[in-house]
Specification:
CATH class of chain A: Mainly Alpha
Strand content of chain A: under 5%
CATH class of one domain in chain B: Mainly Beta
Mean pLDDT of chain A: 86
Largest sheet of chain A: none
CATH superfamily of one domain in chain B: N-utilization substance G protein NusG, insert domain
Structural class of chain B: alpha+beta
Strand order of the largest sheet of chain B: 2-1-7-6
CATH architecture of one domain in chain B: Sandwich
Number of helices of chain B: 2
Low-confidence stretches of chain A: 172-176
Distance between the termini of chain A: 20 Å
Order of helices and strands of chain A: HHHHHHH
Radius of gyration of chain B: 18 Å
Strand content of chain B: 25-35%
Helix content of chain B: 10-25%
Oligomer: heterodimer
Chain lengths: 176, 114
């Protein structure tokens, strides 16, 4: 018989694979603004938060921010920016979901994640790379984009949760 | 699971915050700055070509603004970004720790009526 733990482990691995492959895939999607990506890999992390639990989401977030730069190049710069931002966004989304689960859907959780993600990215860039407050001039524009793309990934997560009830059912054995 | 009113409120709030900052950019005299790492130096806004890092990075400056025309960084996002012309516009190259910034002084008056 399968124990709940092995199911959880398998599901975490599945979401990690999904997250990493979406992260690599989205580097091929060009958006009109240079340097901006949709953040599709956030879908995997949010599914983890909604279906499994926070530790699983953190494992997936770490795997994503190490493996995606490894596969797409420019390792050190991308990793140093991506790791703190992804972790902060994951924690912020977890907190947001924990507090407002009864009143919100993944749509707003995604945009909160995008918002925190971009702010932490700029904070890291300001402190490690371009040490000038002038870099914050760009922040409002990127925040706007980030909230919108976060809402898009949130909506995708919502659709997955709504249309594939089997995904959440398989964890019901251990979920409180 | 459905989209709720609260979702829309949260998203609107998160959109209003950056819009507020975008609307409050000062628009006085333009000044161009080149930031490299910790340094920040002013560049005169006149037609000129600036070469940095032994010619790996080339910056074009005109009287209106500036842009990167060549850069050896991966992705070349700064080159694709194009011109920095208006107040507050910034073109940044994170791997090379370079940025072009247009800064404007705050005008003493919002408007002058006669």
């Amino acid at each position: 018989m399968q124990s709940p733990d092995s199911k959880k482990l398998a599901l975490t691995g599945l979401f990690a694979a999904l997250t990493v492959s979406l992260g690599v895939f989205e580097t091929f999607i060009a958006l009109p603004v240079p340097g901006v990506r949709i953040g599709l890999s956030n879908v995997g992390i949010m599914l983890c938060l909604y279906i499994i639990d926070l530790p699983a989401a953190i494992y997936v977030a770490i795997a994503k921010s190490i493996l995606v730069p490894l596969l797409t190049g420019n390792l050190i710069v991308k990793m140093s920016i991506s790791l703190p931002a992804t972790l902060a966004a994951t924690l912020a989304m977890a907190l947001f979901i924990f507090i407002t689960i009864k009143h919100t859907s993944p749509l707003s959780a995604g945009s909160v994640g995008g918002f925190v993600h971009i702010i932490v990215q700029f904070f890291v860039v300001k402190n490690l790379y371009i040490k000038s407050d002038a870099i914050y001039n760009l922040l409002p524009y990127f925040t706007l984009f980030s909230v919108l793309t976060g809402a898009i990934t949130g909506y995708i997560t919502l659709l997955i949760l709504r249309n594939f009830p089997g995904v959440s059912k398989c964890t019901s054995t251990y979920k409180k | 699971m459905k989209i709720t009113k609260f979702d829309i409120i949260v998203i609107c709030l998160l959109i209003i915050i950056p819009l507020f900052y975008i609307a409050h950019q000062p628009n006085g005299n333009k000044k161009l700055f080149l930031i490299s790492g910790n340094e920040k130096k002013e560049i005169q806004l006149k037609d000129q070509i600036i070469k940095l890092n032994n010619g790996d990075v080339v910056i074009e400056v005109t009287k209106d603004g500036a842009r990167f025309i060549e850069n050896n960084c991966p992705g070349n996002i700064c080159v694709k970004t194009g011109w920095a012309e208006r107040c507050g516009q910034t073109v940044a190259c994170v791997p090379n720790r370079l940025a072009l910034v247009i800064e404007c002084e705050k005008e003493a008056f919002d408007a002058v009526s006669r």
